[in-house]
Design goal:
Helix content: 25-40%
Number of strands: 7
Strand order of the largest sheet: 2-1-5-6-7-4-3
Mean pLDDT: 90
Order of helices and strands: HHEEEEEHEHHEHH
Structural class: alpha+beta
Strand content: 25-35%
Length: about 230
């Protein structure tokens, strides 16, 4: 009797091996625990990815990361009720990929270009991948609490913050009925901070100056910070 098609065996292999795979991160790009925790506290949005019997599903979401919940923290968010992702059973781990900061690095910024010319363009970035168990909260009280926390995080940065209570109560209740809460119970964190740490100090200074010239002050600051 013939066995399963080769593609099916490969698919099963990748599903079984999913937990063992992760972010490629050389030692000099791997942040310490304090930096990792700081990165989690900075996350405002990213992509929630789940593996289902329909294939991979992904949704870009604003999120709240509670770094003090559980051993590794939790991701709190919400999906539109009409979004199939919360209704389709996930297979294995959920993955949340955070959107933090990135930027192009021109070889023209390196003093070493004038010395020997052996330089190429690259991209600096911070990648944070959060793996864990997806929990769905189809519970209006949970959802409202999460929405209030998420709103407060962003509105607190404004001089005249808006609050959920500024909207009519019946309108708020209608909006909450239209969404479903989701939570990723983080089981592991994989972060990578690639900010020119592998370049000579003169080149790092050149990247800082170039980023500032391109009005990327945040990128320049991360290059400075990572070089310490």
């Amino acid at each position: 009797m013939a066995g399963p098609p080769r593609w099916m065996c490969v698919s099963r292999f990748w599903r079984a091996s999913w937990h063992a795979l992760g972010v490629y991160s050389p030692v000099h790009f791997k942040p310490d625990r304090a930096t990792e925790r700081d990165l989690l506290s900075r996350i405002d949005a990213g992509n929630l990815i789940t593996s289902t019997d329909r294939g991979l599903l992904a949704t870009f979401l604003p999120v709240l990361i509670d770094v003090d919940a559980g051993p590794h923290g939790v991701v709190l968010a919400h999906l539109a009720r009409n979004n199939d992702q919360w209704q389709v059973a996930d297979e294995g781990e959920a993955l949340f990929i955070a959107d933090i900061i990135d930027g192009y690095v021109s070889p023209s910024w390196y003093p070493s270009k004038a010395e020997h010319g052996r330089v190429v363009p690259t991209w600096n970035y911070i990648a944070v991948h959060l793996y864990g168990t997806l929990v769905v909260h189809d519970d209006s009280a949970w959802v409202e609490s999460m929405v209030r926390r998420l709103t407060a995080r962003h509105e607190s940065r404004r001089a005249d913050p808006w609050t959920v209570d500024d909207a009519p109560r019946e309108y708020v209740e209608g909006q909450i009925r239209a969404i479903v809460g989701v939570e990723v119970l983080i089981t592991r964190v994989e972060a990578k901070v690639k900010m020119s740490q592998n370049r000579p100090s003169a080149d790092i200074d050149g990247v800082v100056a170039g980023a500032i010239q391109q009005e990327q002050a945040d990128l320049a600051e991360w290059v400075r910070r990572s070089a310490r």
